[in-house]
Amino acid sequence: MAKALWSGRFDKDMDEDTLIFTSSLDVDAAMAFYDVMGSLAHVMMLKKCSIIPDEDADDIIEGLRIILDEMDSGEFEVDGDLEDIHTNVEARLTELIGPAGGKLHTGRSRNDQVATDKRMYIRDAILEATETINVLIADLVKIAENSPEVIMPGMTHTQHAQPVTLAQHMLAHATRFGRDADRFMDAFERVNVCPLGSAALAGTTYPIDRDLTTSLLAFRCPSENSMDAVSDRDFMAETEFCASMLALHLSSMAEELVLWSSSEFKFIEMDDRYSTGSSIMPQKKNPDIAELIRGKTGSVIGAMVSMMVTLKALPLTYNRDLQEDFRAAIESMDTVIACTSMMSKMVTTMKFNKKRMLTMAKEGFTNATDLADYLVTKGVPFREAHAAVGAAVRYCIKEKKYLEELKITELKGFSEAVEKDVFDVLPISKCVERRNSYGGTSPSSTDVQTAVMMISVMQREEVIREEAAFIEKCWDELIE
User: Fold this and answer.
1) Would you identify the CATH topology of the domain 121-146+164-201+218-353+448-479?
2) Catalytic residue of the set 50, 252, 262, 278
3) Which CATH class is domain 7-106?
4) DSSP state of 219
5) Domain ranges (residues) in the chain
6) Is the pLDDT of residue 8 over 60?
């Protein structure tokens, strides 16, 4: 069994079960690349500050670059007898260059090393998630642009309420996803802080240059307090909250798509590529992808709860409990990125039954409120208008008619205030057109919404490109 890096204090080797119980290799292997990049920045700083000899620093840098090549080619072998990826990297480095490899850890603790690796990983995950959300928003905006006059029933309590456009409905979802993207980018600022140099908890006596390592690793600034830096996992909890809100919004949309694809609604037909069949019922076309998006939301929310419970009673500073934080973060981010991508594929390929949507808007008497408002403009108190229109709806149900199909004589039977100009108000299309306030459902209003939304998408894209390009530039400089 390989010796642990801290084994000098102990007379006995670690029990095999203890090794298995404490190992985090199955999770933190995802940080391998970031661990090497952090080590490259650290040793370059050690060299510049003359903390270790130039010759040793150069050997370490060369060895780390070899390890990067091995990771890229798949040749890097993980030793299961070592407890984490950080120990594996240092052990391989020592194999390559000899005892000088042990100098890499000068002025650094595994505490600040791990915290730095996790921030770099989460930083990239946030950019990827936000980019994926932006794609989905753009896809929804495109649907909206192509359907400004497609009318459907708007719902409250899952009951027909008022007529809206398909454009307005798609933009409602896009607006929520826009908040998700903004939340991620806001969280990015708090993630983008460098803990490296905080050491175990109290800083270090070596004359290190934290600004240099911060710059080399593309961080915005170094952390302000070494005790907080090694124990802080707020950035992970916040990121998981952002992921949970995104998952909730995806689930809400997925629920609607499941309903809309049913025989009862018939609003949409899913593309065959994003549907499944039944093993026993040959007629079935199931919206399984939407259902899985809805179902995966629980695990994302669970990851956030797991993080909160882990953090709720930890004294300062580092505690081994924090080893349990990363699995939830990886899984929740991977899940929401995959779900967002699949949602884009579904919405861009599904077919809308526009005729059915309009029919349902009429059958649901979604223009009833407009008729009541019309009577109010004629001097009828709203409560009387409400009652008159309710009676008209009951009549329509009995006679199997739509409100806009009633003749003037029939309408006057419910209120003498009705005049011929009621037909300028009552048609479903007129109800939609008249709702032209800012943010409303009329085509003129949704046109404004699509323009504003795409400006936000482009602004976020610019920030994402700049941040990603800066990180890539720093990586290139470290590897060269």
Assistant:
1) Fumarase C; Chain A, domain 2 (1.20.200)
2) 278
3) mainly alpha
4) -
5) 7-106, 121-146+164-201+218-353+448-479, 368-426
6) no
> Residue 222, Cβ neighbours under 10 Å: how many?
20
- Contact indicator for 370, 164 with CB cutoff of 8 Å: no
Extract the runs of DSSP E, i.e. beta strands, from 206-271: 221-222, 268-269
Query: Do 460 and 134 meet the contact criterion of CB atoms below 8 Å apart?
Result: yes
Give the C-alpha separation, 49 to 380, whole Å: 84
Domain covering 368-426: architecture = Orthogonal Bundle (1.10)
Q: In terms of Cα–Cα distance, which of 219, 155, 144, 228 is closest to 178?
A: 144
Q: Is 249 a catalytic residue?
A: no
Q: What is the b/e burial string over 206-216, where b = at least 16 CB atoms within 10 angstroms of the residue's CB?
A: eebbbebbbbb
pTM flag (> 0.85): yes
- Convert the pLDDT of each residue in 260-287 to its tens digit: 999 999 999 999 999 998 889 888 899 9
Q: Which amino acid is at 70?
A: E
User: Given 157, 263, 279, 437, which residue is catalytic?
Assistant: 157
Q: How confident is the model at residue 480 (pLDDT cuts 50, 70, 90)?
A: confident
What would the pLDDT profile of 219-237 be if each residue is shown by its tens digit?
999 999 999 999 999 999 9
Element holding 155 (H helix, E strand) = strand 151-156
278 assigned to active site: yes
